[in-house]
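> call design_seq(struct)
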């Protein structure tokens, strides 16, 4: 897939800041910069979401990557795995998120969070009362609210990237463990 909008020219200071943080300018920012206000607000809200600390960082990272795998956002999987490395999260686990149902490295709570992320992502959402109550009991109300809104934000980001044609930029190539491929689900058409 190719970008559906050409990259817009970023201000030099923002461009340099992105390169310092990530080693490259994220293509999704360059696409969104066609509307600088949207791009700035998106970056600001994303930073605020990233600063929330009621829910465990690993759980939120795994949830985001599970959403990205389900939606098909290779950019979010790529940068999410790269960020997991930079945040010193468990890379053996993070690398397996695209195939979490088959991987044996996850705890029951981690599996339940990824299943919850997928249930929110499904259209229409398929979150059950039992699923929500189980996570609420284990996480507590502040972490449950944070996790839920974090997953909703991830849905917005992943879907915008896919719609705009943004794909992986190779950020995760810096990780020593390769990112697992997502298995094709029954009834799914291959895009390869």
């Amino acid at each position: 897939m190719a970008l559906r909008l050409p990259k817009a020219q970023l201000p030099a200071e923002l461009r340099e800041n992105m390169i310092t943080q990530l080693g490259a300018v994220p293509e999704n920012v360059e696409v969104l910069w066609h509307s600088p206000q949207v791009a700035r607000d998106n970056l600001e809200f994303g930073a605020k979401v990233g600063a929330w600390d009621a829910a465990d960082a690993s759980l939120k990272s795994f949830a985001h990557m599970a959403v990205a795998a389900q939606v098909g956002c290779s950019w979010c999987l790529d940068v999410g795995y790269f960020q997991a490395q930079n945040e010193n999260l468990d890379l053996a686990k993070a690398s397996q998120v695209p195939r979490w149902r088959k991987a044996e490295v996850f705890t029951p709570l981690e599996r339940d969070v990824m299943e919850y992320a997928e249930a929110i992502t499904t259209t229409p959402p398929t979150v059950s009362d039992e699923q929500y109550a189980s996570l609420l009991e284990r996480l507590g109300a502040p972490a449950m609210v944070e996790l839920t809104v974090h997953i909703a934000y991830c849905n917005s980001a992943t879907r915008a990237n896919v719609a705009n044609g943004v794909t992986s930029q190779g950020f995760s190539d810096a990780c020593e463990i390769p990112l697992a491929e997502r298995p094709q689900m029954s009834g799914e058409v291959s895009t390869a």
